[in-house]
Design a protein that fits this description.
Layout: E1 10-12, H1 13-18, H2 20-28, E2 33-37, E3 40-45, E4 112-115, H3 117-125, H4 130-142, E5 147-151, H5 152-164, H6 168-177, E6 183-186, H7 190-202, H8 208-220, E7 224-227, H9 230-233, E8 240-242, H10 248-253
Parallel strand pairs: 1-2, 4-5, 4-7, 5-6, 7-8
Antiparallel strand pairs: 2-3
Helix pairs in contact: 3-4, 3-5, 5-6, 7-8
C-alpha cells in the first residue's frame, strides 16, 4: 500500500502521477480528486463544470457502471495474481488472444452470464487486454441485452482489491456497479453449497471457491460461466468462457 494515499479521494503526488489517466476519468465522472503533498491538500481534479458553478437543480451523479471501470483496478492487484495458462477448450470455451473480442453472437438475447471473481478482477485490471476481450459482454449486460450474475464470493474478491489499497471511493464504485438492474447478486444457500460439494467430488481439483462459483452459475441457469481460473476453464460440468490469457511463450509455439 502506498503511504502517500490518505483517505477516499486523496492521493499523494507520486501516486497521482502513476494513476493520472484513471484519476482524470474519475474526475470526469463527477468525483473530486484531491492531490496532497506531505498529507496536505495541494490541488484538485474536478469535473469541467465544478460544483461551485453547477446549477442548484443538478441531480445526483449517476452510479458507476462496470463498463466504465475497465482498467480502473490496475493498482489494486499484484501482477503475479494474473494467471497465464492455455486451457484445453471444450464446447464454448474460448481462450483470449491479443486484440481479439468474444463473439457475442454465440449467446442469444436474454441469456444469463455468470462472472466469477477471477474474470471480474481481470476485467478491472485489463490484464493483458482481457478488458477489451470481455468488453462486449459487459456492454451487452449494461444495455440489458443479457443478464449478469455474480456470487457474493465474486463481489467480495472484487472489493478486496481497492480495500487493500485503502481506496474506499473505488470500492464504493465497484459496489454500485453491481447494484445496476441488469446484474443479479446471488448469495450462497444450502442448495448451492450442496451442489458445490458434489462438484468437488466429481472434480477434486476444484477449490471450494471455484466449486461455489460453478454451482452458482448452474443454479442461476447461466448460459455460460466467465472465468480466469484454469481448473474452471477446463471443467466439463458447464459451458465456460475462459478469460485466461496466453503467455508470449504459448504464442511462439503456434
Amino acid at each position: 500500500m502506498d503511504a502517500t494515499l490518505n483517505k477516499a479521494g486523496r492521493f499523494g503526488i507520486e501516486q497521482a502521477r502513476k494513476r493520472f489517466p484513471e484519476l482524470v476519468s474519475r474526475a470526469a465522472g463527477g468525483e473530486r480528486i484531491v492531490i496532497c503533498r506531505h498529507q496536505q491538500p495541494l490541488a484538485a481534479l474536478v469535473p469541467l463544470m465544478d460544483t461551485s458553478s453547477a446549477s442548484p437543480s443538478r441531480g445526483p451523479e449517476p452510479p458507476s457502471s462496470l463498463q466504465g471501470l475497465q482498467g480502473s483496478g490496475r493498482h489494486c492487484w499484484r501482477a503475479d495474481e494474473h494467471r497465464v495458462a492455455r486451457p484445453t477448450p471444450p464446447a464454448l470455451v474460448q481462450a483470449v488472444r491479443r486484440h481479439q473480442a468474444f463473439d457475442p453472437r454465440l449467446l442469444t438475447q436474454g441469456s444469463r452470464l455468470a462472472f466469477d471473481g477471477s474474470a471480474l478482477v481481470a476485467f478491472l485490471c485489463d490484464a493483458q487486454g482481457t478488458g477489451d476481450y470481455l468488453g462486449p459482454l459487459v456492454e451487452g449486460i449494461s444495455q440489458g441485452y443479457w443478464q449478469g450474475v455474480i456470487s457474493s464470493l465474486s463481489l467480495m474478491r472484487v472489493l478486496e482489491g481497492p480495500l487493500a489499497c485503502g481506496d474506499e471511493a473505488l470500492c464504493q464504485r465497484y459496489s454500485q456497479a453491481f447494484q445496476q438492474p441488469h446484474w443479479q447478486l446471488i448469495a450462497p444457500e444450502p442448495g448451492i453449497t450442496a451442489a458445490a460439494a458434489r462438484l468437488r467430488q466429481r472434480q477434486p481439483q476444484l477449490t471450494n471457491t471455484s466449486a461455489v462459483e460453478l454451482a452458482t452459475a448452474i443454479h442461476s441457469g447461466a448460459a455460460v460461466l466467465v472465468t480466469d481460473e484454469p481448473t474452471l476453464a477446463q471443467t466439463d460440468q458447464h459451458p465456460v468462457l475462459s478469460a485466461l490469457r496466453h503467455s508470449p511463450r504459448d504464442s511462439q509455439r503456434r
